[in-house]
Amino acid sequence: VFIAQSRASGSHRDLEDEELTRIFVMIPKTYTEEDLREKFKMYGDIEYCSIIKNKTTGESKGLGYVRYLKPSQAARAIEECDRSYRAILAEPKNKSSETFEHDYYSNTMRPELRGNTLPFCMQPEFCSFEKAETRIQEPVSKRLSVVSRLPFIQEQLFALFDLVPGLEYCDVQRDPHTNSGYAVIQYSTAASAIYAKYKLHGFEYPPGNRLTVIFLEDGNDSSE
């Protein structure tokens, strides 16, 4: 049923296939691509595996992708793999940030939300917040978890969090068993993540639906 719904929402065949064959997983940071392949090859023929790494250090961020040859194989992996992997269908990787922003403002963004947009682009405010909030004592990181009662649309959520400078990636996770929304957001600096959490935790998106934004451990020293 989940695959049938996804097919109905697609308009281009190769984009459709990528949506249905590539899965996103959370993995131990010690995993190599070979480890990832070994864990998931039992569910079908794997085209490739990739691990998201820190651009500076080259260390794993504990996130990865597995691309199967058939949608049925990806579906089986999601259904049968250990729940600790939190496997879900990945969003297409060939969507540009320009497309995200254009769609967000011209097609999908509601007037109520547009009027409620916060002043992210005010650099003096951002800088003063950065200096003040990096001294807080609670554990912080560059990675955020976003939870919602309603499912997310990748383009909209990306555009929303991209208003804060330094967005590295936005991965919307789709669970076929529930109707709630969950996403992992990562910024290039902890300061950007702190600012995004400060501005968007409790933000109503869409109106009437409050977002819950919390820090996720990213393996770095939070005292930085």
Automatic annotation (TrEMBL):
The gene is Rbm45. This is RBM45 protein. Keywords: Repeat, RNA-binding. SMART domains: RRM. It comes from the Eukaryota. Gene3D superfamilies: 3.30.70.330. It comes from Vidua macroura. GO terms for molecular function: RNA binding. PROSITE patterns: RRM. InterPro entries: Nucleotide-bd_a/b_plait_sf, RBD_domain_sf, RBM45_RRM2, RBM45_RRM3, RRM_dom. Residues 21-95 form the RRM domain. It holds the Pfam family RRM_1. CDD domains: RRM2_RBM45 (cd12367), RRM3_RBM45 (cd12368).
